[in-house]
Specification:
Blueprint lengths: L1 H16 L16 H8 L1 H13 L2 H17 L5 H9 L6 H11 L5 H8 L13 H28 L4 H9 L4 H12 L1 H17 L2 H7 L11 H11 L4 H33 L1
Helix pairs in contact: 1-14, 4-8, 4-11, 5-8, 6-12, 11-14, 13-14
Length: 275
């Protein structure tokens, strides 16, 4: 009950304040659904939603790579202890530091442009973070790099519950690495895959603020601004409008809830078909 109250109170408060023009201190006049109407009828909100859905591309990529890495580490390839620590290092580094690192790497005079220029692939430096398409691509690459470790660890935990004799028998029968991964590991780790995907989707909608803040500040324009970053902007940057920020937070909650329910129904349907 205590945990429920702690979690429910902020949500209820945000829902109430979303119906006001709250300035965070004194002004809190009831305005009904004006904040929601202003958000839903404006083009900016839909740009933010589009950006978040584009960034969801990182989810299947990190899940696929995490599964491959986990199987390799589970089979104890040469140097597996070293690589296990190496892949997990990004998890212990601050997201802000990672953001600034990749911002430096992909800057106009950064290492990426220098290397590509010397290889003759791009004679002119590219402003990676100054263009909407390339900036989103860099962010996706950053998210995959920073999240690969925890996804691999999750899958390794699932693989530890599978007897080694299963993989050994498949190896004796001539099953190659990809066949062992997708015809043995994946069917036995369905629930683990569902868990990894669900957490990655929620994180893509709620946990990208430090990356956006340190890499692009949401620019150019709103082309890399996400829903959680816009909540910060409306709360502390472009004039204090916490009522509208609360409304945006409630819309974000609805989107996440809808995606979670859709994923649960889809996975249950897949389970029914497999039976």
């Amino acid at each position: 009950m205590v945990l429920l109250a702690i979690r429910a109170y902020p949500i209820i408060t945000a829902a109430v304040k979303s119906l006001t023009n709250w300035d965070g201190l004194f002004t809190s006049k009831y305005v009904g659904f004006t904040n929601y109407r202003r958000l839903l009828t404006g083009s900016t909100f839909w740009i933010l939603v589009r950006n978040n859905f584009v960034l969801l591309i990182n989810v299947p990529v990190q899940v696929f790579l995490g599964l491959v890495v986990a199987v390799l580490l589970h089979e104890r390839v040469l140097g597996w202890r070293f690589f296990r620590a190496l892949y997990y290092i990004p998890q212990i580094i601050s997201a802000v530091i990672i953001g600034y690192l990749f911002r430096t790497l992909f800057s106009m005079d950064g290492p990426i442009n220098i290397v590509l220029g010397r290889l003759g692939m791009m004679p002119n430096p590219v402003e990676w973070l100054g263009n909407a398409g390339s900036a989103l691509g860099v962010i996706i690459f950053t998210l995959v790099w920073s999240s690969l470790g925890w996804v691999a660890i999750v899958f390794m935990g699932g693989l530890s519950t599978i007897p080694d004799s299963v993989f050994e028998a498949a190896r004796i029968d001539g099953a190659g690495f990809w066949r062992r991964t997708f015809q043995i590991a994946v069917p036995l780790l369905v629930r683990v895959v569902e868990y990894a995907v669900m957490l990655s989707v929620v994180w893509t909608f709620t946990g990208l603020f430090p990356f956006i803040f340190s890499m692009t500040k949401g620019g150019p324009g709103y082309d890399t601004t996400t829903l959680d970053y816009m909540i910060y902007i409306k709360s502390f940057v472009s004039g204090v409008n916490l009522g509208e920020a609360c409304a945006l937070a409630m819309l974000l909650l609805v989107i996440i809830f809808g995606l979670t329910v859709a994923q649960m129904r889809l996975t249950n349907r897949v389970d029914d078909w497999s039976e």
